[in-house]
Amino acid sequence: MNVEKHTVPSSGRLAVTRRLVERSKAANVLEIGGSDISFRDVLPAARWTMLDFSGAADLRLDLNVAEPRIPLPDSHFDLIVLTEVIEHLLWPHRVMQEVSRLLTEAGQCIVSVPNIASGSYRLAWLLGRIPSCAACGNLPPPELGPTTYSGPNGEEIGGHVIDFNRQRLTQLVRYAGFGAPTFHSSGLFWHRTVVPPSLCPVGLGSNLIAVLKLDQNHDNRFANGHHFPTH
């Protein structure tokens, strides 16, 4: 499925994510949803696999299904990058269970989502307006569905369907088998960077950026029952 994705502007979110990817020093990386903008160049020596439903992906797969299955082996990647994806998914907890299955025990996942409780969104709600990145389903863009993508034939695809704040993202990843996330500020962005990450509290940032590690005591890691060969 070919779609026309929005241009991704430079922001604190991208800078912070790049820094976290570099800091991981990972050798085997899975990037989910990176066909519009990828972090592959940050770790040029790493073995890098990109999964997306369109674009220049190594593995093309639609994860917006009730029982997502990623045909890759258990405990295979030491880093999984999943930025600005799960807010588009109807069953993000099941995708995150797959992500936990694919991670090595010492691996980590970097995930980011728009923050419905950001400073600019709080102001929009106060003024009686729906923030631009709030869930809109597949309403036609851009007037009714500002996060919906337009396909080559004019069809509407993939608008935001779930809003996240810090608490909801924490609950979701804990359910999927991860420990408590470590959050990093994205800064506040409104057409441009208004407050840099170093000066912006996590809860007020435009995006929530979290580094996840597996909860070794969690028994829900393979809750989907999907296991693939390890060799």
Description:
With 231 residues, this protein is of the alpha/beta class. The chain has a domain at 12-116 and 162-213: Vaccinia Virus protein VP39 (Rossmann fold, 3-Layer(aba) Sandwich). It is 18% helix and 23% strand. The protein has 4 helices and 11 strands; from the N terminus they run αββββαβαββαββββ. It has helices at 12-24, 92-102, 119-126, 166-175; strands at 28-32, 47-52, 59-60, 77-83, 103-114, 149-150, 156-157, 182-185, 188-189, 193-195, 207-213. Strands 3-2-1-4-5-11-8 form a 7-stranded mixed beta sheet, sandwiched between helices. Strands 6-7 form a two-stranded antiparallel ribbon. The chain has a two-stranded antiparallel sheet with strand order 9-10. Helix 2 links the parallel strand 4 (77-83) and strand 5 (103-114). The longest helix is centred in the N-terminal third of the chain and has 13 residues, at 12-24. It is globular, with a radius of gyration of 17 Å. The protein starts with 11 loop residues before the first helix and ends in an 18-residue tail after the last strand. Mean pLDDT is 89; it is low at 1-5 and 225-231.
